[in-house]
Amino acid sequence: MGFEQISVIDGDTISETDLGRQSLYSRNDLGFNKAETCRNKIEELNGLKNVVSYNFYLDSYNIEEILSGSDIVLDGTDSIRTRELINEYSVKKGIPWIMTASYGDMGQIKFIFPEKTSCLGCMINGRNLIPMNCHYDSVEPYAPQGVSVLSTSMIASFLSGKQVSGDLMFIEFGKMSVERIRIDINPGCSVCAGHEYPLLEDKKIKGRQIY
Question: Is the pLDDT of residue 4 over 60?
């Protein structure tokens, strides 16, 4: 898609449960780091040499080093804390990002563009959320595949200069239905309105944290 560099970030290793829903991996990859394997497979398939892998989790210690200068961030994490961290960094630096999640036969996507759409803080509004993801819910193989296609389409639209909606999208693949929830910018949001970034400043946010 014309990017000078693509960074893949994941400290997890490939397990049996990944094989049914993550098409880049095979049984020969079991036990290997996901990010490094993803990089190797992309290089093998497309000959691209501009993919960089980080075999650790994004946290408040390394986020500046990894995401500084990014044009856009695509989230595929299982951690609401990591999403909140990405949101704070995105708002602070003015970087657009796409939040995605899959659970059961459903997926959700939200495009966040600081100062133009509502952010994750506007949606959470101070609540302590438990994420819906593969740690708590089974995931049908086609759900993350579908979310991946739609989120990549969002990136293509954004890069071509088209306006991308900041609605929260719920996709129920079993019923082939899409529900959009409009979330306006919250003037009381502590992140995009108040410019408070507690997770970026909290060095306890280290490694993978589900909550």
Answer: yes
